[in-house]
Amino acid sequence: MTSLVGRRVLLVEDESLVAMLAEDMLLDLGCEVTVAMRLDKALGLVRSETFDLAVLDVNLGDARSYPVADLLHERGTPFLFATGYGRKGLDRTYQDVPVLQKPYQAEPMEHLLVRLVTGEMTPREGGRNLPSPCRCQDMQAGGSLFRADQVR
Fold first, then answer.
1. Residue 61 has pLDDT above 50, yes or no
2. Which pLDDT score, from 0 to 100, does residue 1 have?
3. What mean pLDDT, rounded, does the chain reach?
4. Is 133 contained in some domain?
5. In a domain, 151, yes or no
6. Apex CA 57: angle with CA 15 and CA 108, to 5°?
7. Is 61 exposed, middle or buried (0-12, 13-18, 19+ CB in 10 A)?
8. What CATH number has the domain bearing residue 59?
9. What is the mean pLDDT of residues 22-41?
10. How confident is the model over 10-24, as pLDDT tens digits?
11. Which of 34, 39, 58, 92 is deepest in the core (most CB within 10 A)?
12. Considering the domain boundaries, does residue 152 fall inside one?
């Protein structure tokens, strides 16, 4: 069992098949999952419910999930972005947020979420005090090996 069992996770993903795949992965990890497919729904859920973690697709049709990220950050809820563009697809303000490379894969997802929930990804000094990236995120730079050690 991992430290993810019983954790409430908000999954913000606008593609229904992709959302179902990610939701299944999270359920297999023992998480309780709430899915939002639109920005307004995600914002409403964050305002009205409490989550332990969140996985945010960056691009939600014609909107971006940054307002959800800001609200989660204000509430102290750990989150990561999911995108097929890797870190290069993020606005400069969010460069220190962990990124899960799409398409979703169970092992990297579990690794990043466990690091978030256990506090292994600690806030950086200055800036927005967002979590520091780990080496597993080098995959978006074209690498194919999953690496779990932290960038230093």
1. yes
2. 60
3. 83
4. yes
5. no
6. 105
7. exposed
8. 3.40.50.2300
9. 97
10. 999 999 999 999 999
11. 58
12. no
Cα separation, 146 vs 126, in Å, equals 29
Residue range 133-144: average pLDDT?
44
pLDDT score recorded for residue 119:
83
Tell me if 4 sits within 8 A of 113, measured CB to CB. yes
Lookup result for tokens 């950050």: 73
Domain limits at 38?
Answer: 8-141
Number of domains making up the chain: 1
- Residue 41 forms part of a structural domain: yes
Whole-angstrom distance, CA of residue 50 vs CA of residue 84:
27
Q: 71-110 as b/e, with b when 16 or more CB fall inside 10 Å?
A: bbbeeebbbbbbbeebbebbeeebebbbbbbbebeeebbb
Of 77, 74, 21, 81, nearest to 55 by C-alpha is 81
Tokens 């908000």 identify what position? 10
From its phi and psi, is residue 126 left (phi > 0), alpha (psi between -120 and 50) or beta?
left
Q: Is residue 67's pLDDT more than 80? A: yes
The residue among 49, 93, 85 whose CA lies nearest residue 69 is: 93
Backbone conformation region of residue 85, classed left if phi is above 0, alpha if psi is from -120 to 50, else beta: alpha
